[in-house]
Write a structure and sequence with these properties.
- By secondary structure, the chain is an all-alpha fold.
- It has a single domain (about 1-105), classed as Helix Hairpins, CATH 1.10.287.
- The protein is about 75% helix and about 0% strand.
- It has 4 helices and no strands.
- α2 runs antiparallel to α3 (about 35-60).
- The longest helix has about 30 residues, at about 65-95.
- The radius of gyration is 18 Å and the shape is elongated.
- The N and C termini lie far apart (about 55 Å).
- The relative contact order is 0.12.
Length: about 110
């Protein structure tokens, strides 16, 4: 375990921060400007993974495994979110014949 944490600390923490900010920004732009719900879900996952990368980098930098355990639970919640999101996409495709977010107002009761 000591070898892995020392290998992670060879890369400066600022590089992880910049990569995480770049990934989060790309995901945020995709959520704000896209109308396809599948692309929006992928961008949300990109945003979650950028935060997970940052938490893991800080955890390894401070030699504290609790952040990495927290990331494991975040990934479990993200998997559940994907299952719910895909079921919404299937329901939307059946009812509206499209996956465009602007057509969600047709799904009212």
């Amino acid at each position: 375990m000591k070898e892995i944490s020392s290998a992670i600390q060879l890369i400066p923490l600022e590089n992880y921060i910049m990569l995480s900010v770049a990934l989060f920004s790309i995901g945020l732009m995709g959520v704000l400007f896209r109308r396809n719900i599948i692309v929006i879900l992928m961008c949300l996952e990109l945003m979650f993974n950028s935060v997970n990368l940052l938490i893991t980098a800080f955890s390894a930098y401070h030699s504290d495994p609790s952040g990495q355990i927290f990331v494991f639970f975040i990934m479990i919640v993200a998997a559940a979110e994907v299952a719910v999101g895909l079921s919404i996409v299937v329901m939307m495709k059946r009812n509206v014949e499209s996956v465009d977010v602007n057509l969600l107002n047709r799904l009212r009761w």
